[in-house]
Amino acid sequence: xxxxxxxxxxxxxxxxxxxxxxxxxxxxxxxxxxxxxxxxxxxxxxxxxxxxxxxxxxxxxxxxxxxxxxxxxxxxxxxxxxxxxxxxxxxxxxxxxxxxxxxxxxxxxxxxxxxxxxxxxxxxxxxxxxxxxxxxxxxxxxxxxxxxxxxxxxxxxxxxxxxxxxxxxxxxxxxxxxxxxxxxxxxxxxxxxxxxxxxxxxxxxxxxxxxxxxxx
Length: 216
Ligand code: DX5
Ligand code: ZN
Fold this sequence. Notes:
With 216 residues, this protein is of the alpha/beta class. It has one domain (4-214): TIM Barrel (Alpha-Beta Barrel), CATH 3.20.20.70. It has 8 helices and 8 strands. The N and C termini lie close together (12 Å). Zinc ion (ZN) binds at residues 8, 33, 35, 66, 175, 195.
């Protein structure tokens, strides 16, 4: 299976949300990446349930929801009801990640955990058997359009080695600063899902840009 592409709606034109969602439907993208920010865990506020409902109304591909909020366990059922297929919470925002994963799965979603750039991958060692997706932040979360952090490659390789050694199934997702130059290197290091915001939505031809990432 090739790499999965998840365009980040954070970089869409919110005045033309239906148009941009339909662009993703018509493209070779695999998932919609949905960034939820609370202004506390990260220094930015993105959007909440009314906007998510508008996205869901038109989206024809799975919703990959990335919660950048404190105490994410408060909203597990609400995001299940809002149509999330994958629900990712931050390790740094989770006191009881194991319990939160149980609740995410009970609600019928895949369970993901995101790591900030400062968090080493070995912190997840005891959660690997329960994990469907690990999102490595390759920028500091909060904003689109930032520069890719090069240290991410090493973290992908470490995780891919841990996955092979334990025979685990989790996907490795990379979020932040993904572009046509680093995408092949990310895939070679072991990434399975590439999130791309600005690179897709500021392109002259977003559908062709997604096809370019997909054709790696
Ligand atoms: C950052 C978000 C990312 C962001 C990626 O906090 O989690 O998903 O939208 O945007 P680009 O691809 O522009 O770095
Ligand atoms: Zn994200």
